[in-house]
Amino acid sequence: MMFTKRLRPRIVSGEIDCSVRIWRSPRVKVGGRYPLEGGQVVVEKIREIGLSDITPQLARRSGFEGVVDLLKVARHGAGTHVYLVDFHYEDAA
User: Fold this and answer.
1) pTM to 2 decimal places
2) How far apart are CA 79 and CA 60, in angstroms?
3) CA distance 31 to 38
4) Distance in Å from the first CA to the final CA of the chain
5) What are the pLDDT digits (tens) for 9-24?
6) Buried/exposed code over 17-27 (b: 16+ C-beta within 10 A; e: otherwise)
7) Which helix (H) or strand (E) holds 74?
8) 89 CB contacts (<8 Å, ≥6 apart)?
């Protein structure tokens, strides 16, 4: 999983523990480990949600100021399915 640079320190600290992604199909799997900043993001849960499920609270939990800010990053490519990915960060040590 790739994350915008500005979110990475907050993911490593544990402040951010989820991500909203708009894909054609899931690009990660539960239990999957994805490298990030000397450690890894471990996917705990992934579920499809609707655009209307993206609330200001969810946007902030994902590390964004609001829904519009989140959608600017989440919308890329031709994907139409919205996924909520819950994860935690594990240090490599």
Assistant:
1) 0.93
2) 22
3) 18
4) 20
5) 999 999 999 999 999 9
6) bbbbbbbeebe
7) helix 67-74
8) 11, 12, 14, 36, 39, 40, 41, 42
Tokens 């690009």 belong to residue:
27
How buried is residue 87: exposed, middle or buried, by Cβ count under 10 Å (0-12/13-18/19+)?
A: buried
The pair of three-digit structure tokens given for residue 22, joined into one six-digit string: 């708009």
Torsions phi, psi for 71 (to 5 deg): -65, -30
Which residue type is seen at 81? H
The total number of residues shown for the chain amounts to 93
Secondary structure in 3-state letters for 42-61 = EEEEEEEECHHHCCHHHHHH
Rg (CA), the chain: 12
What pLDDT, on a 0 to 100 scale, did the predictor assign at position 74?
86
pLDDT of 93 over the 80 cut: no
